[in-house]
Design goal:
The chain has two helices and six strands; from the N terminus they run ββββααββ. The protein folds into two domains: 55 residues, no CATH class; 45 residues, no CATH class. The mean pLDDT is 81. Strands 1-2 form a two-stranded antiparallel ribbon. A two-stranded antiparallel ribbon has the order 3-4.
């Protein structure tokens, strides 16, 4: 959940994790959080609904681990089963570069 300060342009001053309720601001820079977002379209049981969740780093990676586990349970006896659990980049679209930034995978 974004915490905003009222003004001419609402400014986010903090982001609270929607799972554990802890601030994602480390006090030094910007809040550090991950976002899950969806906008359901035609044909969905939730057509027209939109969701956005903010997660701290710990809760974000806990959710990724749970998703990997659910996927693994569906195929654990198949040949690809063990590969899913060993995939450290599950869901990642960019890998960190040596200079600390992000590069494409």
């Amino acid at each position: 959940m974004k915490v905003t300060q009222a003004g001419e342009h609402d400014m986010a001053i903090d982001v609270i994790c929607d799972v554990c309720g802890v601030s994602t601001w480390d006090g030094a820079g910007e809040p550090q959080y991950g976002t899950m977002h969806t906008s359901w379209g035609k044909g969905s049981a939730h057509c027209g609904q939109e969701y956005e969740l903010h997660l701290c780093e710990r809760c974000f990676f806990s959710q990724i681990a749970e998703m990997k586990r659910a996927r693994w349970l569906a195929v654990m006896f198949d040949q690809e089963g063990d590969a899913i659990l060993g995939d450290d980049a599950y869901g990642r679209i960019r890998a960190p570069t040596s200079d600390g930034g992000s590069g494409n995978t």
